[in-house]
Task: structure prediction
Amino acid sequence: MAFVANVAASLMSSPGLLVLVVALIALVLMVTSNRKPRGKNPFATDCRRPAAPLVTDQSARDRVIKNGFAIKKVPETLDAVVVGSGIGGLGVAAMMAKAGKRVLVLEQHDQAGGCCHTFIEKSFEFDVGVHYIGEMCGSTLNKVLFDQLTEGQLQWEKLDDELDVVSLGAENPRKFPIVQGNEAFKKALLEKFPDEEKAIDGFLLLLKKVRKSMMGYVGLRSMPQWLAKLLVKTGLVNYMTDYFKYAGKSVKQTLDELTDNQDLKAVLSYSFGDYGTPPKDAPFTMHATLISHYYYNGGYYPIGGASEIAFHMIPVIEKAGGAVLVRAPVNQILIDDSGVACGVRVHKSSGDIDIHAPIVISDAGLYNTYQSLLPKKVALKHGLDNVLSKVRHGVGAVSLFVGLRGTKEELGLKAQNCWAFTNNDLDAGFEEYASRSAEDAGKSDVPLLFISFPSSKDPTHDQRYPGKSTCTVITLCPYEWFEQWEDERVMKRGQEYKDLKMAVAARIWDQTCRLYPQIKDKVEYFEMGTPVTNKYYIGAPRGEIYGIDHNMARFSADTAIQLNAETPVPNLYLTGQDIFCCGLAGALFGSLLSANAVLNRNVMFDLLNLRKKIAKTK
Result:
């Protein structure tokens, strides 16, 4: 070990030598290791085609996104089976399909899409998890990736330039616009905080530095595990990227060093609700990545609603001979006598069905995969409890869905979101709320609300649902408030459960109507989902919508390299937000890392090459 430390010290003193050594190591790996076959390039050609008209016939859409499981629908000679049809599952399946692989995706819910699905009640359509996504323009990496995985069929509408509004205070709230674009973002902040230019400039500079460090982080995550561990163990990773330097400070610590203005600190940390970890616990890298994701190129919404994502990715999977089947709850990952993952077991009331495949990919999340789907003796053998000890469950969430009478013009609704806080100490407000008992949950204001009007973001909504608008309000809450009903049947959880959730819903709606009084008397549909709702529909073990918690410990170098796509169990892989970060783009990049491992090639490099070609043609 002393020898390794001395070598590391020598390399650290000479960055040029470091680069040479890393290159030599990579070369040795390529030449001498016993490598599995290298898959085809899924991004060898630009597969975009002219966008077809929006499909509005619900029966035609259901044939794609609600294709029910039957053994006769399972393709023969599968190359892989994917557990879960969230964007992480669909993303890796589509990339594998583009590389010529036949993949089966199994979904326990009655429609595909995970948090990308929508539901229709009383002639109102609601999204459940897609509220906006950044950088969906030009030849950004996000745009190129989505275009390739949907063959250019998924179209996007840009939100207002003022994409978010931050509201501080319960009564007579102070409102702060968040405007897209580097200069516009700064100008809007300066108009509200004219004496804080130095702090604002410092914040913007840090965003730029973190953004620059991201490619090094992605590069580390794309390397063979042994090489990544070597770089982290020796400290050489810090010459490769500054990512972990910025991850070593919380959002609160970073902002405290920039300014004493509490309102400004609240405004600059407002979107922690997008990943669910309060500023004092969240790494600045996570926050900075998310903020810059939106403010550089704005926010976008899928035209036709969130279900368009699954609707256009599934045909890509099917084209290669694969399938996406719903109402197919997987209750076990099969392990053969040699300890290799070899398929999954689907639970059916008529008798469980085993489906075999040489590769198993789980989009069910880290906890579900390691604690529920794998046999316990397998998890213990590979020390998977050690991986779980380094992370924790994310916080639970509730979602209020409200159907409104009137168009967006009649109701004065904009294509933007509102983040409403009862005070400017976001940490204190969150801690106080999380410490309440279930009995007190609805008795006073909720300190954080994300208020969105999906119908105002989609230009086809008025055509599809004339005279109607929708509002979705989300907040975080302890799973413990609703835990006693987790095993009860959905819609059959009793009056006590209903009273509790409606007390919280009524408080949320009262706060929402203070900010939007014009919608108060326009309600035609009113329902709320709780953390146990999330557990039932999206398989979230503690009602979390962002997977494992996005705290500082998760983003340390030691932990990050353990959240790999390739697991210690041979032929078992992970995908989705738990191996990268949350959100639509984060989970999709998780699928990129998964495809990287399964296909045994640098898929990120393939994508960057295609992006370069597309940019040149423009």
User: Anything to note?
Assistant: The chain has a mean pLDDT of 93.
